[in-house]
Amino acid sequence: MKRITLLLLSLVMTLSTWAQEPPVFERTPVQQGVKISSDVILIAMPVATLTGVLIAQDWTGLKQAAFTTATTLGATYLLKYTVKKQRPDFSDFHSFPSGHTSVTFANAAFVQRRYGWKFGIPAYALATYVGWARTYAKKHDWWDVLAGAAIGAGSAYIFTRPFAKKHDLSIAPVSDGHNFGIVASMKF
User: Fold this and answer.
1) Domain containing 143: what range?
2) Among 115, 119, 122, 130, which residue's Cα sits nearest to residue 62?
3) Is 156 a domain residue?
4) What is the per-residue pLDDT across 54-96, written as a single tens digit (0 to 9) for each?
5) What is the Cα–Cα distance from 93 to 104, expressed in whole angstroms?
């Protein structure tokens, strides 16, 4: 009788540990600040790019950006809801791939392909920061970020064609010794 009681007690304890909630993850203030900065960049990068595209009246680029964005978001969310990988902070099961990283890398690759490395290098630097920030804040593992970057950049490389070559875009600094500025020219 003692063995059956011990076996039942052991089974109840095992089941109760399986039914427990996952541990609660508490971010440090620095991790929280880094997470928030990645959220801000997620919004600011596409808004800045869209503003530039509209100012340049680059309607072909706008169409290419729309296809890039649709493909990136479609692939990202299809995988998030199919794979169901738990986040390192235990908040949900939508870790793979990183949506922040896929969007920012799609944006960076679009900018680089369409307008050149002068604009692409800062865009890639911001996208790389977002990828690092998502792992530092424990929202993703590094492979979630790499997959997001590949999806975003890959989508942009599929749909985006260079703007500068087609319009002979030229950007250069100018100075008269006292004043400084930037001049841009292109063919329509």
Assistant:
1) 27-163
2) 115
3) yes
4) 999 999 999 999 999 999 999 999 999 999 999 999 989 999 9
5) 21
Please report, as a single letter, which amino acid is at residue 172: A
The number of domains in the chain is 1
Which pair of tokens denotes residue 160?
């985006």
Evaluate whether 102 touches 152 at the Cβ level (below 8 Å).
yes
For the chain, what is the HEC assignment? CHHHHHHHHHHHHHHHHHHCCCCCCCCCHHHHHHHHHHHHHHHHHHHHHHHHHHHCCCHHHHHHHHHHHHHHHHHHHHHHHHHCCCCCCCCCCCCCCCHHHHHHHHHHHHHHHHHCHHHHHHHHHHHHHHHHHHHHCCCCCHHHHHHHHHHHHHHHHHHCCCCHHHHCCEEEEEECCCCEEEEEECCC
pTM of the entire predicted model: 0.75
